[in-house]
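Q: How would the structure tokens look for this protein?
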Amino acid sequence: MFRCPMLLSSLKGGAIKITKSTPVRNINQSKKTFKDKANEFIASPNGKRFKILVLAGTMVVYPIGALLTNGPLIKISFPFRYNVSYDVPNTLKELIEGEYQNFLIKEGRAKKDANVTFSINKDESIHDSIAKSSLSIRFGAQIALPFYVIFNTIEEATEYCTKNVKTMNFLGEKLNIDWGSEKGQEIIKTFVLSDKAKKFLITRDMYANDGYEAYGNRSLSWATWTAFSGVFTYVFHQRSKICNGTALSFVVAYPLFLICAWFSNNQWHELYRYVQDIHADKESSHLTFDHCEGGKEYYYKMLKRNRILREFMKDGLQKISAAGDIRKTRTSIVTRYDFMKDVSKDDEEMKVAASGDTW
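A: Here is the predicted structure in token form.
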């Protein structure tokens, strides 16, 4: 009885202050970490939409861009990406036109079904043709022949290299070459190709970039492999007991499976290009005896040039083999040269057999 009046008097005098209690839920919300917020977002409807957008975008953005770049926009993108010139010498134009007509006759196709534009690659660091797209599509293929196909004589090659190639960039190294020296002249001789070699090169490049696969192989492969990686990412992130749908699991799983998809896509494309290179060599070398001899000359001079250039390089032994083959190249030059020699042996036997049938 005595305590009650004392409490009442204390309340009136303000000795005891009553404060409003804060709910436990509000305290917990105010102490949320970034990890908690990320987990809540990734589990929310917006988070699910975000995951679908990322996975679907990964699958379709590159193929759409590549198909547009190598399709409707090929005439703009190709000269933008590479240092090419469409000013082709008349003698080379005649060879290109002749080989193109032979290609149409052999394949039984009309001009509208085999569209191709040839140019000259002015980049002296690239010693083989570069090409994009395909002859089989409406927009056609773009093929840039190496810069040295414009040479007809050693004098022309010497004059060009002396004026325009002060230093040669080759396999990531800058090489200072005295074109008037013995080694310089040996390199220049490998730049001068006969008409047989040029015909082989032109025909080979057309076969190497023919078919719808040449246009859409990499894009379709990317879409396929990233579709698999997207499924694996979602299952691993959402269904795995270890991950349990956390934001961290998505951040880890997405790039991990994407790297696997990129590697698989790259290897698949390399395999396709290797098969296509061998197919192109086979078709062009079997066209005539001259094409086969031209193929042997082209690859022999390439190997010889690489062996000489290796002597000017600091890391030449690591980048070029003793035979002149560029290490880590997609299709071995030695393999292609050996194939030409095998075809040449068969051609010699056919020549002997054919001569025996002459009355």
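The chain has a mean pLDDT of 85.

Residues 69-217+268-342 form one domain.

Upvote if useful.
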